[in-house]
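pipeline stage [seq->struct] | target=Valacyclovir hydrolase | organism=Microcaecilia unicolor | residues=291
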Amino acid sequence: MAAVGTRYSFCQASRRLRTILSTVQRLGPAALHNHCTSVTSAKIAVNGVQLHYQKTGVGNHAVLLLPGALGSSETDFGPQLKSLNKERFTIVAWDPRGYGRSIPPNRDFPPDYLERDAKDAVGLMQALNFKKFSLMGWSDGGITALIVAGKYPSLIHKLVVWGANAYVTEQDMKAFKAARDFSKWNEKTRKPMEDMYGKEYFAKTFDACIIGASQYMNNPDGNICRHLLPTIACPTLIMHGLKDAMVPSFHAEFLHKHIKDSRLYLMPEGKHNLHLRFPEEFNKLVEDFLL
């Protein structure tokens, strides 16, 4: 793999600091607050596609937020983009290729689609000049984060995953297929997806996602990334909602057992999207862990 990004030189950092201080002197303390809290939205070329991302904060600790299946920065991480500590962190939330505003291309699911997402995630942070960063991954984004941390351990400062699994079982596939009935989805979950994609693209792509996940059933023990867990070297926080209907708790326990420097936090009332249902508790736990 090529060298990752270019470390900001001392001169570059000094120029950035002088620019910020000059702005504060000219416009007052409110300027610094606005600079910290504003959320920018942009696209950047990565691995032959244009990837959309949102970025906020001015902290030295860069954190990449990785959304779930068909998820995006807009649909999946509103409370985190709004409320995570923006003075301590620089927060980047991305839309994987074929999701959110990273269309075109339309999403497809080749056998290595999660590995492709992992490569894209690293490429994005390279393009944004972050040499080392932390990961926060939910659901499929959690799997992607596990792959990144396992394949590129020298790049990752800390790792947070929730609703993630390192392998697929028949029980998992039954839960995925049951989720095809969108009438059973909570409207707060379904409507942002339909607004983002339109009903037809959403339904078609969700079906393709389930078929894509089923490909891992052909691997020994349904392996996705279980072989990479022992290579994860960074401190890891595994969070799991005990009422998660999509990913049973034995997956979180398996991650905890096989990632050597990990801790497991269980939320008794948490469901699959625990970061959206309990954002204050979630954000505090994550900030304490990352700091």
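stage status: PASS
auto-comment: The chain has twelve helices and eight strands. The first strand starts at residue 39 and ends at 46.
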